[in-house]
Amino acid sequence: MPELPEVSGLVGFLDERIVGRAIVGVELVSIAVLKTFDPSPQALGGLVVDAVSRHGKWIALETSGGLSLVFHLSRAGWLRWSDALPTTVLRPGKSPIALRVRFDDGSGFDLTEAGTQKRLAVHIVRDVVDVPGIAKLGIDPLSPEFTREAFGQLVASRRMQIKGLLRDQNEIAGVGNAYSDEVLHVAKLSPFALTSSLEPGQIDTLYDALITTLTNAVDAAAGKPAKDLKDAKRAGMRVHGRTGEACPVCGDVIREVSFADRSLQYCATCQTGGKPLADRRMSKLLK
Questions:
Q1: pTM score of the predicted model
Q2: Does the structure show a pLDDT above 80 at 28?
Q3: Residue 285 predicted with pLDDT over 70
Q4: Which of 17, 51, 192, 235 qualifies as a FRET site for 258, CA 20 to 30 Å off?
């Protein structure tokens, strides 16, 4: 799933290409992806893109007509850009394309989704906060408001596993499964550590790891074409998605804990005192 750094990269990529351009067509291929019915996709025709913005993992195309096209790529969605879109008519069920947006210079993008779990979400709204997922977002970790004090208050107000807090979009916007693994590895904390068990020094370290990891990843994504962002993300991971490989810090093998719909990766030497974590049914906080 694209997380804050990749979404930031997509926003920058689109910003350079579509701000000031008029939308000449929105082709809805998969009705299921459109979560709103008023305004219609046709209402975007002729409107000029004023800005492209990020809201957590959401991307919003804000237009001169006061309407915004807002989308969330979810687990298997992606944005495919073309300097010259084909003129062929798209037919439902014939490709992974769910939505196509055309601009007045012939360029445009497709929103695609692979796999059987269809979670790609598109909203056409008059205000981005009309999107329920955006209205409920927590604080953005790269915003000026996300201070060490604010993070400490957030940690103190919740009793839960720290990985769960980092991934909770209602608390911290934009961090998902991959970057929470990376942050916890940098901070040398177990993903199963409880927020209530953290000492002030550990909270300091975790805060610094979160800011540094995300900032570095955003910088790495900046300026890359949309088609290269997923590979760049994978290449930049230290532990996530690297089960069985050597930890880049200590050389121990990177381990995995599997869940029904995802998995996490960690280094036992760096994060859990050398003790492997058990599976989700039996895992306990490792001291």
A1: 0.93
A2: yes
A3: no
A4: 235
pLDDT at 92: 83
pLDDT score, position 287: 40
Six-digit token pair at 23?
A: 């939308």
